[in-house]
Specification:
2 helices, rod-shaped
C-alpha cells in the first residue's frame, strides 16, 4: 500500500507539473496574442492615418488640376475671343442690324 501511495503521489506531482507547464504556456500564448493584437491595431491606425493624409492631399496633388502656362494663355485667348463675339452680337441686336459674320 505504501508503494501505491507513492505511485499516486508521483502521478499527482507529474500531473501538477504538467498542468503548471500548460498554464504557463497558455499565459505566454495569451501575452503573445495581446502583443500581436496591439501591433495589428497600431498598423491599422497607421494605415488609416496614411489613407486620410492621401485623401486630404488629393486635391493638392491632383495632376489634372495643374495646367501649364501655355494652355492657360490659349484658354484665356479663346475666352476673350468668345467674349468679344458676344459683345459684337449684343451690339448688333441693340442696333437692329443683321448678325455680323462669324470671325
Amino acid at each position: 500500500e505504501v508503494h501505491y501511495m507513492e505511485r499516486v503521489h508521483s502521478e499527482a506531482c507529474f500531473a501538477y507539473d504538467e498542468a503548471t507547464a500548460m498554464a504557463e504556456q497558455h499565459c505566454k500564448a495569451e501575452a503573445e496574442g495581446r502583443k500581436t493584437l496591439e501591433k495589428l491595431i497600431e498598423a491599422l491606425h497607421r494605415a488609416q492615418v496614411q489613407a486620410q493624409e492621401k485623401q486630404d492631399a488629393y486635391w493638392d496633388d491632383a495632376p489634372f488640376l495643374s495646367a501649364n502656362p501655355r494652355e492657360l494663355e490659349q484658354l484665356q485667348g479663346t475666352l476673350e475671343a468668345s467674349h468679344a463675339r458676344v459683345q459684337e452680337l449684343e451690339a448688333a441686336i441693340e442696333q437692329g442690324s443683321p448678325t455680323p459674320a462669324m470671325a
